[in-house]
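Internal tracking record. Fields below are filled automatically when a chain is submitted to the structure queue. Please do not edit lines marked as system-generated. If the sequence contains nonstandard residues, flag them in the REMARKS field before resubmitting.
Queue: standard
Priority: normal
Entity type: single polypeptide chain
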Amino acid sequence: MRRQQGRLGIFGILCVASLISLSATRALAGNVETLLMPGKVSNAHIKQEEKCGNCHDRTNKVTQTSLCLECHKDVAEDVRTRVNFHGRMLNAGVSECRACHTEHKGRDADITQLDAAQFNHALAQFPLEGAHASLDCAVCHKRGEAWRKATPSCVGCHKSDDAHQGQFTQSCGDCHSSLSWTGGKFDHSKTEFHLNGAHVAIACDACHVGGRYKPTPRTCVGCHATDDEHRGSRGPDCGKCHATKEWKSAKYDHLKETGYDLLGVHADIDCLACHKSGNYKDKVPQDCDGCHRADDAHARRFGPKCEDCHDNEHWHPVEYDHLKRHKFSLEGAHAKLECHTCHTGIAGEQKLATDCKGCHRSEDPHAGKVKGDCAACHGQSGWRADIIFDHDLTDFQLLGLHRVVSCVQCHNSLAFGKAPSTCSGCHAADDVHRNGLGDKCASCHSSNGWPLWVFDHAKDAHFPLLGAHAKLQCADCHREPPGTRKMSQECVVCHRKDDRHLGQYGGQCDRCHSNYSWKGARIQ
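SYSTEM-GENERATED OUTPUT FOLLOWS
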């Protein structure tokens, strides 16, 4: 009985193994690669799961990104044209898709892995500014829809908020800001009807009744027919007599009737201000001098053409192109001067100099000792404010610490030309060698500082300072100025008093001694 049960058990195991083997054979026959798949792909890629070659190239991993872009053509176009998020990333075009988007994490895996809190929305070519900055992503991006499909136009999101009901075809941003709909600014001057006078202050609905912007009348009678006291008897062109400022002050076409246009403050003054007799047939002067001679603060020194400097709005500020008229630009301190500071005589009779010395000769602290134009060193904002002298153009360039010293440290006279040009000329008192090494300080020292001396004794003197010599001061050997006597390089010349042999072995001490110490002499 037990033997029979054992046979049945073995038979069952063989049946199960056969079924498993059959299933595996069928699976291998269908797609052997799916058996090696590390995990299910996301729902978005479920159609590509049956064939790994849709996304993977077993022979070349580098081509995986190109396979992604073959399906995601919109992203490929962004990368190619450098637009939208994928085209404006720092690593656009060189990074691999899988660096951000992983797969085989299961059907419900988030392969986008977008960190909304850290996302730089400006890369999507739509910076979140104003009221947009505090919005939740879901307000603009619909659930289940690609993020890129969100409309970038105002009307795409705010069509229901459009108080104009689609009457304006231009962008909402032309009038409104992203902070709020209220406070919109519309430039009416860009339309065919400019707002002047009383039109500037009235509300939009006064003309655009009920928020209707098209069609709106552009003629006076089109809006003001009910205000016409003449009841149409004077025709539809109200502008012949009335101005946009108000109805009551009917205007007179002064230019057409008299040839003199009333501009600026002239348009607001009373008629009797010019027509003093009250008889409008009396001849009235049409030039500035004819009416404003008593107001001329220049006492007529600049002639009768007031309009050369002044306009019809006011006497001040004066707008006069001095550069264009006189080839002399008023800049710096000159721009603040009154005209009478330079123009002391009558215009046309007085010729003014255009160079610095012509006006400022008495202010020259150099007493004429410095040649050339003042502008070579001084600017126009002030004599001391912007000195611009370039010392590098002289025979003595300012290097190192020379650039930070004041002029008076070297130039004790405002003539400037007598300053010494050698190191010893200025630094004789600073010479710790007391002229023991001559006046060519630059051979050893740098203009960046005295301690930064760079003399190469081996190269420049052909005598390397080795051993005990390296610790000596220059004056220990150089007791006379360089050039006065050529120094010998024999040991006995300097060390004759140290010679215990009293000259018995000659002057070539280095045959037995080293330059580190007399002790430890070697006998050859």
